[in-house]
Automatic annotation (TrEMBL):
This is Precorrin-6A synthase (Deacetylating). InterPro entries: 4pyrrol_Mease, 4pyrrol_Methylase_sf, 4pyrrole_Mease_sub1, 4pyrrole_Mease_sub2, CobF. GO terms for biological process: cobalamin biosynthetic process; methylation. Pfam families: TP_methylase (PF00590). One of its GO terms (molecular function) is precorrin-6A synthase (deacetylating) activity. Residues 13-226 form the Tetrapyrrole methylase domain. Keywords: Cobalamin biosynthesis, Methyltransferase, S-adenosyl-L-methionine, Transferase. Gene3D superfamilies: Cobalt-precorrin-4 Transmethylase, Domain 1, Methyltransferase, Cobalt-precorrin-4 Transmethylase, Domain 2. Pathway: Cofactor biosynthesis; adenosylcobalamin biosynthesis. SUPFAM superfamilies: Tetrapyrrole methylase. PANTHER family: COBALT-PRECORRIN-2 C(20)-METHYLTRANSFERASE, PRECORRIN-6A SYNTHASE [DEACETYLATING].
Amino acid sequence: MSGSGTLVQVKRLLIIGIGAGDPDHLTFQGANAIAAADVFLLVDKGEAKDDLTRLRRDLIAAHGREPYRIVEARDPERDRTTPAYTAAVEDWRSRRAQIYASFIADDLADGQSGALLVWGDPGVYDSTLAVLDEIDAEFDYEVVPGISSISALTARHRVALTRVGRPVHITTGRRLAAEGPTADDVVVMLDAACSFTGAGEDHHIYWGAYLGTPDEILISGPVTEVADRIRAARAEARARKGWIMDTYLLRRAPSEDHRRTQNK
Ligand SMILES: C[S@@+](CC[C@H](N)C(=O)[O-])C[C@H]1O[C@@H](n2cnc3c(N)ncnc32)[C@H](O)[C@@H]1O
């Protein structure tokens, strides 16, 4: 309530996970959240990744409830050449925060809901929630989970993400290259350099690119046998489409000792 007794309506943001590329990944909860939004913020990453923006537009057209508005913004460029990785990410984040802050201040009226459509699941290697934490504005927000590329990967390969009672480590290509596989089951994302090459002979890889889309590629097998095939498929697809997103699970074969304890 304001001092004069009128109800102050808060601005609301809906952070909606839209799945990893297949429009059918969108959950009923996600579709309902899209229908509840008055304004959508689409942050464009540039022409090479047009497909990613197209899916968001298609989902809004399919599930949005008129009248709604779409506000477009350009993703700030990130300096990927500097060795100062953390500083470059911090700089990018604060410019992203500026875009969200302007969206809330200028494009949302009190009581309205704005939506951000986040690739995959907002909780997996996505900075939207962390960036929103930096914003100094009065607003409320809700998070709608989405199907992550990890779920899409394991489902398409028809394998379970977790083995009985065992942990899984989720990491980046950069870290895998620096540290090697840090668990028997490692999911690797954001790998521009095929860092699986360093995995040992006892590793199996389940690799997927453009999961859930018509361009999907799936390759699996012992790393030593399929590494060249993955590298070639990756390079060819990247050259043809101008961008690539790939994810993989590296799974070490159970040792004899482990097999014996499991079978007791
Ligand atoms: C910034 S992260 C976003 C992850 C996303 N939030 C999720 O839940 O999957 C981008 C990375 O996710 C992975 N990824 C996302 N979509 C993918 C897809 N359709 N196929 C394969 N990998 C994908 C790739 O490793 C890519 O480098």
